[in-house]
Design goal:
By secondary structure, the protein is of the alpha+beta class. It has 3 domains: about 240 residues, Spore Coat Polysaccharide Biosynthesis Protein SpsA, Chain A; about 60 residues, no CATH class; about 350 residues, Glycosyltransferase (Alpha/alpha barrel). It has a 5-stranded mixed barrel with strand order 4-7-5-6-10. Strands 1-2-9-8 form a 4-stranded mixed β-sheet, with helices on both faces. It has a 4-stranded mixed β-sheet with strand order 11-13-15-16, covered by helices on one side. Helix content is about 40%, strand content about 15%. It has 22 helices and 28 strands.
Length: about 700
């Protein structure tokens, strides 16, 4: 259930609130002077604010640019409080522990204050109820008084050692620390100087945002260490208060069952679950799922989104996220790690698969789709598919990715020209596998991608005549020109932003590839149409469909697609920086904000469509809006949103055959079982290229970074 966009602290594992909400409610009464401080990842800012607002708890929210473990978090807290009052007591609590008796817990913290005021770092040691192997242990020293010095720590022992520790009076390590800000900062400077220094600089660089404070990038210089390892195992001022409290870190499903209210048969069930002859069963099922359990015992059954777990509760400690594979269990903590994973997937899985199984050896054309286990689905040849794939492989070759991608691109493009180009030089929309016409209609959308493919081929082989071919095709597209500006599209919706967007993209790609001035003129024409007609000046949102005067359509035709808000934002930001025209950058940022209205925080993905009042129209979530979210976040320099997008997108790549993808996510988080369309490789390639280039400098058609 713990996913990159919704980690364990934000889950409702026990009771009606999340672990984070329960912790905030439990400790907020202790924050009598400085208030509650929440330190979390920048990627989870919205979750933190939403969950605090839902329980009515106010807090100072400090966001880390990258996760750095608990030592850095404690260092930040000490530095933040120390600027105000070094003698103030800082009490540090985990966000995901289950402690049902909040009053007793607060009383135990109060009993630590006297030692904390005299320079100690006091932790709570829970008296064990069993010899657990899932917890760390603290060995208290002998002596008088409630608070004892610490003799030593032991991290998650085996069963035999755990039994010996419990018999010797060792305590479970609760991860709670109480000390003055000055003591914490001093011990961190003594035992973990790089962490203390990085935290101090991050606090000094901190910038306030909307309801949050974003810590400086200097925090990324802090080594990743737990506070126990960095300080508590070394310090001479550590102390422990033994307490009798019901406590669990809810690290496994048997612990969740033990902490939950149960029925007379010892089971804890989600609403609607049906059981018969079952005992000691934990069932957690998402909305809309029907689960029945017959004649079973000691089982955990968890059905969440598109994942199902069934395990014996006695084996619950063995449940771990699968390592190495694509999937929601994998969480990227930073964009560099995400970029490495995506580039490996592209270079070792996607490109090789689509260059072999994804091509027709008879013609060299590209397949329409592959199933999740790599089987061919190829009913016909659409020009948009052939052109997009030619663009991807030509770009891969021009960008320097290892592989025979140049020959794949050339062969595929030659097959497209041979099969789909009409006598007038325009391209048919669909042909069959032998090149016979199915739909001879020339569409602007199709031609935008033919021009895009030619631009990539021109980068690959500048002397091959692709520039002349593209210029000739651009001239033929004058037949699509509309008297009121822009271009008409063939079909039922002639006045639309989508086809113009991809023509704009092709013009920018040609400009970057060294094309003639006609491409710059075309790009400026389409940018002007977007800024004056496509985008609503009041809301900053870009509509999809228009009338002949380029006035926005409303009602059923008034949908907003968040993915297109991001895609236009990416293009306008590129255009703006080329022209040094601030209008494009300003519009791009407003479009990005509109696109983020489509973020489903529960699933961590962008939905398909909104109504023009920004309410959700289609809660499904296709793959391509996730790639556009990532591209726009990167070009506009929003690393938090980019990391969120990279994590959300990764779930789509979890398939039996590596190199294909899941295209459509249902509102419940599961995926529609359908083949992977080739068209999405274009979206994925550009997002991964943008992820390689980085957020600050966009290299259009430049070297792979």
């Amino acid at each position: 259930m713990s996913r990159p966009w919704r980690p364990k602290p934000f889950l409702q594992l026990v009771g009606p609130v999340s672990g984070f909400q329960s912790a905030a409610l439990r400790v907020a009464p202790l924050a009598k002077t400085g208030g509650l401080i929440v330190i979390g990842g920048a990627a989870h800012a919205d979750l933190i604010l939403e969950q605090l607002a839902a329980i009515g708890v106010a807090a100072h929210v400090l966001l880390e640019p990258e996760p750095r473990d608990t030592a850095a978090a404690v260092a930040v807290a000490a530095a933040w409080v120390g600027r105000i009052d070094p003698a103030a007591i800082v009490a540090v609590f985990a966000a995901d522990h289950h402690i049902p008796d909040a009053g007793a817990f607060r009383a135990a913290v109060g009993a630590c204050l006297a030692r904390a005021r005299t320079g100690g770092i006091v932790t709570l040691g829970i008296r064990p109820t069993r010899a657990a192997t899932a917890y760390g242990y603290i060995r208290p020293a002998s002596g008088e008084g409630a608070v004892r010095a610490i003799a030593g720590f032991e991290e998650k022992p085996d069963a035999a050692r755990a039994t010996l520790l419990v018999e010797a009076g060792a305590l479970w390590n609760s991860g709670t620390f109480v000390a003055t800000a000055a003591t914490l900062s001093g011990e961190l400077r003594r035992w973990a100087t790089p962490i203390a220094d990085a935290a101090g600089r991050a606090v000094a660089q901190a910038e306030p945002g909307e309801g949050v404070v974003r810590l400086g990038q200097a925090l990324a210089d802090a080594p990743r260490l737990a506070f126990d390892r960095a300080v508590m195992e070394k310090t001479e001022v550590g102390a422990v208060l033994p307490v009798d409290l019901a406590w669990s870190d809810l690290g496994s499903w048997d612990a969740v069952l033990a902490a939950s209210d149960t029925d007379p048969q010892g089971s804890s069930l989600s609403p609607g679950v049906k059981v018969s002859g079952a005992r000691d069963v934990l069932v957690r099922a998402g909305a809309g799922l029907q689960v029945s359990v017959l004649g079973a015992s000691r089982l955990a059954i968890v059905a969440d989104g598109d994942g199902v777990l069934v395990c014996n509760l006695d084996e619950a400690q063995s449940v771990r996220p699968p390592g190495g594979g694509a999937g929601r269990a994998l969480c990227f903590n930073d964009l560099r790690t995400a970029g490495d994973a995506y580039r490996m997937w592209l270079g070792t899985a996607a490109l090789p698969l689509w260059a072999t199984i994804g091509t027709d050896p008879a013609s060299g054309g590209f397949r329409e789709a592959l199933t999740w286990d790599g089987q061919v689905v190829d009913p016909h040849r659409r020009t948009r598919v052939q052109a997009r794939q030619a663009f991807v492989f030509a770009s891969a070759a021009a960008d320097g990715l290892a592989g025979p991608w140049d020959s794949v691109a050339r062969t595929g493009h030659a097959a497209l020209v041979a099969q789909a180009q009409r006598p007038d030089g325009l391209f048919a929309s669909i042909v069959d596998l032998n090149g016979a016409l199915i739909d001879a209609t020339p569409r602007l959308y199709e031609h935008a991608f033919v021009l895009l493919a030619l631009a990539a081929l021109h980068r690959l082989e500048p002397e091959a005549g692709h520039g002349e071919a593209a210029a000739a095709l651009r001239a033929r597209l004058q037949a699509f020109r509309h008297p009121a500006g822009g271009f008409r599209e063939a079909g039922a919706e002639p006045f639309q932003a989508n086809a113009a967007m991809h023509l704009f993209e092709a013009a920018l790609e040609w400009e970057a590839a060294g094309g003639d001035t006609g491409w710059s003129d075309l790009a400026d024409d389409l940018a002007g149409l977007a800024l004056t007609r496509f985008i609503d000046p009041a809301t900053g949102a870009l509509s999809e469909f228009f009338d002949a005067a380029w006035s926005r359509r409303t009602g059923e035709a008034g949908l907003l697609e968040p993915g297109h808000q991001f895609e236009w934002a990416w293009l306008l930001a590129r255009w703006s920086r080329l022209r040094k025209d601030p209008r494009g950058e300003a519009a791009a940022r407003r479009l990005f904000d509109v696109g983020r209205r489509g973020l489903d925080h529960e699933r961590g993905v962008i939905v398909n469509a909104l109504w023009d009042d920004f309410s959700v129209r289609d809660a499904g979530a296709r793959l391509w809006p996730q790639t556009e979210h990532l591209k726009a976040a990167l070009i506009l320099g929003d690393p938090d949103a980019a990391l969120q997008a990279a994590n959300g997108l990764w779930a789509y790549l979890d398939t039996p055959a590596r190199g294909v993808w899941r295209e459509r996510m249902r509102p419940d988080g599961g995926f529609v079982p359908e083949p992977s369309p080739a068209t999405s490789l274009y979206h994925l390639y550009l997002a991964i290229r943008e992820l390689g280039a980085g957020a600050e400098t966009v290299i259009v058609g430049g070297p792979w970074s």
